[in-house]
Amino acid sequence: MEVFLEAFFKAFSLIFNFDVSLFEIVGLSLKISVISLLIASTVGFPIGVFLAINRFTGRSFTISIFNSLMGMPPVVVGLIVYLLVSRSGPLGWLEILYTPYAMILAQLILILPIIISLSTQIFEELHKEYKDFFIIFSVPPKTSVITYISDSKDSLITIFLAGFGRAVSEVGAVIIVGGNIDHVTRVMTTTIALETSKGDLPLALALGIILLLMSLIINLIANRLKIKINKETYE
Question: pTM score, two decimals?
């Protein structure tokens, strides 16, 4: 019990003293997750709009594929990216294995289906609501897309937060393609796994506390947005 309490005390000490090594790891985690999320959102939201407002052969199958990919095992994604960017892989010439770039790519593949699937559902509901109105007044497709995005911004932020939560808490894929190299590719989740196996509980606990706080903040924001959306729906 004393060892446990001592580890907690040291963990909080690391946080409140702004330990350089601790916040270097936190900073790299946030950098990788935010970059992968921004890329996924830039690519995913337009695809979601396209799938929502267009009817074509294979549309349902395509949506089903993206829905299925939402549950991809992270270690499988890590293995796929490893095979792609390893020296003998098709993208080996990029030489990004065991760098943050490979970790961004792995997280991008993980969260892109989430962005596409959830945004497609939201845009499809809006399209059903506004479709006849836009047809009657001959609203250009570009204007209709802007309207959809504007009217669903709160929901899109919730999707954005869900993608961030998925990215920042990922360990399986990033440890395979990143290698957990100190000062290079060591992020919060991989460090927690490593330091726990080494018995260095204070650092693992400090990172765990920060990760939990991030998850709590994300959930609070998401719930706040849901309440706001529900109020606007019934008003």
Answer: 0.88
